[in-house]
Amino acid sequence: MSKLLRTLGVALLLGALAACAAPTPWVKPYEREHFADPIMSFNRDPVSSIYLEHVFESREGAHGGTGAVGGGCGCN
After folding, report:
1. C-alpha 26: how far from its chain's center?
2. What does the alpha-carbon distance between residue 32 and residue 26 come to, in Å, rounded to a whole number?
3. CA angle, 44 as apex, 42 and 48 as ends, to 5°?
4. pLDDT at position 11, please?
5. Exposure class string for 38-60: b at 16+ Cβ within 10 A, else e
6. What's the CA gap between 52 and 68, in Å, rounded?
7. What whole-number distance in Å separates Cα of residue 1 and Cα of residue 41?
8. With the CA atoms of 60, 66, 69 and 70 taken in that order, what torsion angle do they form, in degrees rounded to the nearest 10?
9. pLDDT number for residue 13
């Protein structure tokens, strides 16, 4: 019984790991342009959020780490 449970556990673990592997990228290069669309932004007012981000960076003495705005080609 213990050997059966161990074998079943290993099989389930290998199945879960195999499900996580993706042989091809999920987002194709020609589909990335849709993510650069302003409608996909989390900010309602991007101008004011850029200003507030600048103020935060000045206060904290650190720069970056909040993500980057890129084009649809995936070059950035």
Report:
1. 12
2. 10
3. 110
4. 93
5. eeeeeeeeeeeeeeeeeeeeeee
6. 15
7. 54
8. 130
9. 92
What pLDDT is attached to residue 7? 94
User: What contacts 36, CB < 8 A, 6 or more positions away?
Assistant: 70, 71, 72
Could you read off the pLDDT of 6-64 as tens digits, one per residue?
999 999 999 888 877 766 667 787 887 777 777 777 777 878 888 888 888 787 777 66
Q: Count other C-beta atoms under 10 Å from residue 9's C-beta.
A: 10
C-alpha torsion 69→39→41→54, nearest 10: 70
pTM, rounded to two decimals: 0.33
